[in-house]
Amino acid sequence: MIVVNHIPGKEGTTMSYRWPADTIFTRLDFTVEERWCQTCGSRLTVCDHRQRRLFTLNGPVHVVCKLAHCPARACPAHPRTISPEAETALAMPWWVLGWDVVCWLGHRRFTRHWSVGQIRAELADTYQIVLSDDAIEHYIHRYQQMLAARQHDPQRLATAYADVDAVLLAIDGLQPEKGHETLYVVRELEKKRVWFAEALLSSATAEVQQLLAQARGWAERLGKPVRLWISDKQDAFVRGIAAEFPGVPHRYCTNHFLRDVAQPVLEADSRAKVKMRRTIRGLRAIEREVLAAQRTALSTHTLAPAISSVEVHRAETPPPETPPEVEARDVVLDYCTATRGLLNDDQGGPLHPPGIRMAEALGEVRASLQRNLEAQKGGLRMSDLPVWPAISTVG
Ligand SMILES: [Zn+2]
After folding, report:
1. How far from 356 is each of 339, 346, 347, 367, 371, CA to CA, in Å?
2. Cα 67 to ligand 1 centroid, rounded to whole Å
3. How far apart are alpha carbons 16 and 19 in whole angstroms?
4. What is the DSSP track for 204-223?
5. Are 341 and 375 spatial neighbours (Cβ–Cβ below 8 Å)?
6. Sign of dihedral through CA atoms 19, 131, 11, 148?
7. d(CA 144, CA 137)
8. 36 alpha carbon – ligand 1 mean position (Å)
């Protein structure tokens, strides 16, 4: 039995829907399931009708609810109007969408990750339900509220935790933007459930402590001991957990620890990179020199057959280049390209700092050059190769 006294009309006015004149509705009639007054035992009589029109996935329906009341004027229940329960099984008060449509929306949004635009188009195409974006957003918000209520349901929670010996709790504050209120989330890690979340304007110990007390209430209702707390080392958490959960171990989150330690590591890495880039210079000068030599060699090569074809002074043409010299120029250019690539590499986070990788790679280039110098192959003179300064990998 649903008793309706006064449902605030605000949402009803914002959600009013203009139905096209040619809409064809299926009519549904609901009557109150109870036949007798629970207070005095009189037979209930119909006192009013409520008409509603709403969307279901099976098409628009016109719901007529026969509302009832106790006719005995002396009965304390007389002023109350009773609605049929079947009505809320179809749709909540003031909704223009049935439960099936709301569940469909929520599933498409949160399981399939559809955008509101996609949902709107699909609703119109497949179900001929034409809604605006903000109406869809409104109902998605409703879906979230229903989901949160279901997650909070003590009976469901008890069932979910039936086979758990103890709970592991974590608290974290998320600030969507600087200066905005922080959303504190209490999670349980054994069943990976968000227990509850609350936005707090201040992170003062007293306010945070209320959330911790709430978490203690949840654990007590479940009848499960708290084995561990995990959070960052925020003062309010450290004090609050110690006060609210005496004797329960409190571990600091490794993720936060890493994040805090990452900043100085990345800064030191960045300084080391700047230093290495400063040390290794003159790549372009080497490349220019090699390319100039290549051009000269090329022009004499293409010129040579022309001169020989008119048979003039064969002795004056320069001797053709030996393959090792051509090869050596390519090798030098390859070294330059590789080195430039290493110096421009900025990828990698705190766990793989780019500066360390750069130092290691430059060390390899240097060792490789050293091997070439020692081999002294191809008639290459020492002065043709750039000499690389030692790179410190300590930084
Ligand atoms: Zn009565």
Report:
1. 15, 11, 11, 17, 23
2. 15
3. 10
4. -HHHHHHHHHHHHHHHHHHT
5. no
6. positive
7. 11
8. 8
Residue 85 alpha carbon to ligand 1 centre in Å: 19
- Give residue 75 CA to ligand 1 midpoint distance, Å: 5
| pTM as predicted | 0.55
How many Å lie between the centroid of ligand 1 and the Cα of residue 69? 8
Residue 80 CA, ligand 1 centroid: distance in Å = 10
Q: How many Cβ atoms from other residues are within 10 Å of residue 94's Cβ?
A: 16
Q: How many whole angstroms from 4 Cα to the centroid of ligand 1?
A: 16
What's the gap in Å between 72 CA and the centre of ligand 1?
A: 6
The residue whose two tokens read 């959303």 is 183
Instruction: Give SS3 for 250.
Output: strand
Per-residue pLDDT of the chain (395 residues; tens, 9 = 90+): 444 333 334 444 445 678 888 899 999 999 999 999 999 999 999 999 999 999 999 999 999 999 999 999 999 999 999 999 999 999 998 899 999 999 999 999 999 999 999 999 999 999 999 999 999 999 999 999 998 888 888 899 999 999 999 999 999 988 777 777 889 999 999 999 999 988 887 777 888 999 999 999 999 999 999 999 999 888 899 999 999 999 999 998 777 778 778 888 888 888 988 888 888 888 888 889 988 888 888 777 655 454 444 444 454 555 556 677 888 888 888 999 999 888 888 787 777 888 888 999 999 999 998 888 888 655 545 445 454 554 444 43
Task: Give me ligand 1 centre to Cα 46, in Å.
Answer: 13
Q: How far is the CA of 32 from the centre of ligand 1 (A)?
A: 15
Question: Which amino acid does the sequence have at 347?
Answer: Q
CA dist 233 and 310 (Å) reads 88
CA 375/CA 145 separation, integer angstroms: 75
Residue 345 gets the label, from left (phi > 0), alpha (psi -120 to 50) or beta, of beta
43 Cα–ligand 1 center, Å: 8
Q: Which phi and psi angles does 252 have, rounded to 5°?
A: -90, 135
Task: Give me the DSSP letters along 75-134.
Answer: STTTT-EEE-HHHHHH--TT-SB-HHHHHHHHHHHHTS---HHHHHHHHHHHH-----HH
Q: Which pair of tokens denotes residue 65?
A: 């609810």
Q: Say how many Å lie between the CA of residue 92 and the centre of ligand 1.
A: 26
